[in-house]
UniProtKB/TrEMBL annotation:
InterPro entries: Rpn/YhgA-like_nuclease (IPR051699), RpnA (IPR010106), Transposase_31 (IPR006842). One of its GO terms (molecular function) is double-stranded DNA endonuclease activity. It comes from Kluyvera ascorbata. Belongs to the Rpn/YhgA-like nuclease family. This is Rpn family recombination-promoting nuclease/putative transposase. Coiled coil: none annotated. It holds the Pfam family Transposase_31. One of its GO terms (biological process) is DNA recombination. Residues 6-104 form the Transposase (putative) YhgA-like domain. NCBIfam families: T_den_put_tspse (TIGR01784).
């Protein structure tokens, strides 16, 4: 059901929907420093209102788009139909401004960089962003060894710092689906001498963590088998070194 316009709203919008009247109104009331930026001959009425329904008896608004000296811009005119000032007016104006900006952002085309369709050879030319972009593009790839040659070439160029390489490898391990990051690190360490020690250290750390994880998994299998045989939990913790909380988790 359409809402009935108030007398204030009706007369205001009837007048200011006329482009010539709107230009006169803006010329009279817009601050001079802002008026200099506006090309009023390009003024165009935009649809929509950002006034809440319960405030429409007191306020009317209208929006125009226009070209400015720096690009496209908007003029949001808010008319107050009350005789006493509102201490929250500045805050309300801010809300309306943000609402107008939000509509512009979510209803207008915006530039999108889809790295999944950018050829790897083109990404390789992105200097200090190349390594990150390349890994992000292929982060779901299971065999990251296929990127070894390209990453090695990028690291050798020196556009990626040691700290960035460390963070990049950690990102690859945490967010990616690579099966053998350790193999990738060993390969990179051999081909990128300036970062060889760092890469080798990370590979060795992964190897040790893998051994520890393997030992823990074997210990958990033994403890689970002992639990299934009904062996007392105190005995199991003494033999395996697992805590009672860890045993409790194995029971589920």
């Amino acid at each position: 059901m359409a809402e009935t316009a108030t007398p204030h709203d009706a007369v205001f919008k009837t007048f200011l929907s006329c482009a010539d009247t709107a230009r006169d109104f803006i010329s009279l009331h817009l601050p001079t420093q802002l008026l200099r930026l506006c090309k009023l001959e390009t003024l165009r009425l935009e649809s929509g209102s950002f006034i809440e329904n319960d405030l429409r008896p007191y306020y009317s608004d209208i929006i125009y788009s226009l070209k400015t000296t720096t690009g496209r811009g908007y003029v949001h005119v808010l008319i107050e139909h009350q005789s006493t000032p509102d201490k929250h007016m500045a805050f309300r104006l801010l809300r309306y401004t943000v609402a107008a900006m939000q509509r512009q952002l979510y209803t207008s085309p915006f530039p999108l960089v889809d790295i999944t369709v950018i050829p790897d050879d083109e990404i390789m030319q992105h200097r200090s962003m190349a390594a990150l972009t390349l890994v992000q593009k292929h982060i779901r790839q299971r065999d990251m060894a296929l990127l070894q040659d390209k990453l090695a070439s990028l690291f050798i160029l020196g556009h990626t710092s040691g700290q960035q390489i460390t963070v990049l490898i950690n990102y690859l391990m945490q967010a990616g689906q690579a099966q053998d990051v350790q193999k990738l690190l060993y390969g990179l360490a051999q081909r990128v001498p300036q970062h060889g020690e760092k890469l080798m250290t990370m590979a060795e750390q992964l190897r040790k963590e893998g051994i520890q994880e393997g030992k823990l998994a074997a210990t958990q299998d033994i403890a689970k088998a002992m639990l299934e045989r009904g062996i007392d939990s105190d005995i199991i913790t003494e033999i395996t070194g697992l805590s009672h909380d860890e045993l409790q988790q194995l029971r589920h």
